[in-house]
Amino acid sequence: MKITRLALEDDSHRAALLRLLDDYARSPEGGGEPLHAEVLQALPAQLAACPTYIGLLAWEGREPAGLLNAFWSLSTFKARRLINIHDLAVASAYRRRGIGRALIGRITETARELECCKLTLEVLAGNHGAQALYRDCGFEHYALDPAMGDARFMQCWLDSR
Hints:
five-stranded mixed β-sheet; globular
């Protein structure tokens, strides 16, 4: 297995990104619906225009096996960068081979190179396999004050697209 930075100018990388992300979207963990054609068409250019985007691809030979999409931002409480892992997807044929762990290892290296203070991600409550992996990689639920409880991820859709 080999991990590379995702190069959006490379046709094979763009194809791997779209295939792996669409496969993930179609899975129960990704919502069970394919990505809309407009999203698949627009995504590479949108990511290329985002200066904080970091993409990683895992390859088994010439086959794309895993994808990690992340974005760096800023922790206002630490005045340092952080990286949010937005998507971590491993093709079903390649699961349980350490690919997710390797992708997290590589983004952790990148975060250290960028002098980030932390990595963040979201995970569904029912995705027990992913939660176990994340815990093994050092992730944990967080609370600023334990009396206030764990932080919760929330969203507010602005349109139906």
